[in-house]
Design brief:
Blueprint lengths: L8 H11 L3 H17 L1 H5 L1 E7 L2 E6 L2 H9 L1 H12 L6 E4 L1
Parallel strand pairs: 2-3
Antiparallel strand pairs: 1-2
Helix pairs in contact: 2-5
InterPro entries: DciA-like (IPR007922)
Organism: Bacteroides fragilis str. 3988T(B)14
Pfam families: DciA
Length: about 100
């Protein structure tokens, strides 16, 4: 017997993640994992700690010059990271 109410598996997984409140933490982890992809291995070597709290990405850098450079392109960086994940995960970045 054929079922007419079949849904794609991806949609079912996404619905389950929303119901269990797991979608946001999953997207946050995807964003943290995409940091090296978006910025490259050189900048990653100057990055010491990354974490997200209240839709703000906190980045600890070991180079003051790099910190200043990234602060100037902060809006574009927020846009690129969110685009990589496919959702609005962060609204701001704070460099320390």
């Amino acid at each position: 017997m054929k079922r007419n109410d079949a849904e794609p598996i991806g949609k079912l997984i996404q619905k389950y993640l929303r119901q269990e409140s797991l979608e946001s933490p999953l997207n946050e982890q995807r964003l943290l994992d995409s940091w090296e992809t978006v910025l490259g291995p050189t900048i990653m070597s100057y990055t010491r700690d990354l974490y997200i709290r209240n839709q703000v990405l906190y980045v600890h850098l070991t180079s003051a010059a790099l910190r200043q450079e990234l602060m100037m392109g902060r809006e574009l960086l927020v846009r690129n990271l969110n685009q990589k994940v496919g959702a609005t995960v962060i609204t701001n970045i704070i460099f320390r």
